[in-house]
Amino acid sequence: MSEHVATPQFEAPGIPSLRESARTVTGYWWVLLVAGIAWTAVALVILQFDQASVTTVGLLVGLMFLGVGLENIALASLDVPMRWAWALFGGLFLVAAVVCFANPTDTFAGLADTLGFLFLIAGVWWMVRAFLERALNPLWWIGLISGILMTALAFWTSGQFFIEKAYVLLVFAGIWALMHGITTIVRAFAIRTLREEL
């Protein structure tokens, strides 16, 4: 019986090569900075409460549908179970994106009409997630309180007229875009600091 010495097929990368790879990846920190500035500019447009705000929110919803549609189409191209479902929903999301881009004002109006329902779904999910994370997260109660407040906001928003719903939607979209922009800019500078340390 001959003895075979096992030779590794793959060699673990050394620390210097990992450091160089991380340095290369973190070299793109400026992309996050540009994205953060763009989100902040979008927030300023939305928070002006004019026709440009309405159009901007409609276009943002279209971009969201476009991203999700492309993601689903990409997943359908892989060897995954039920590829047809991924392709079907990817196509539906792409059609929704085209509709949003074609008429962003009507997209905004439809979103404002369903705002209470969307808030309700988000609030219920936050409460369920808080209970699911209870064993792992000592701050689970923050998610529970946020979910309760979002659910209360959902019922309040559902009872409002369209104009009030539209303003609530604009305020939430503007604040969300502003917070997203600020956190993206902070992440960009954190990645730049990490690059300098590498």
Would you give an account of this structure?
The chain is mostly helical. It has one domain (30-197). It has eight helices and no strands. The chain has helices at residues 15-26, 29-46, 51-76, 83-102, 104-113, 115-132, 140-158, 162-197. The longest helix has 36 residues, at 162-197. It is globular. The termini are far apart.
Summarize the structure.
Helices cover 80% and strands 0% of the residues. With 198 residues, it is an all-alpha fold. It has one domain.
Task: Please describe the structure with a list of short key phrases separated by commas or semicolons.
198 residues; mainly alpha
Q: Count the strands?
A: 0
Low-pLDDT stretches: none
Shape descriptor: globular
Tally of DSSP helical segments = 8
Number of domains: 1
Computed Rg: 23 Å
Largest sheet: none
The helix content is: over 70%
State the end-to-end CA separation.
50 Å
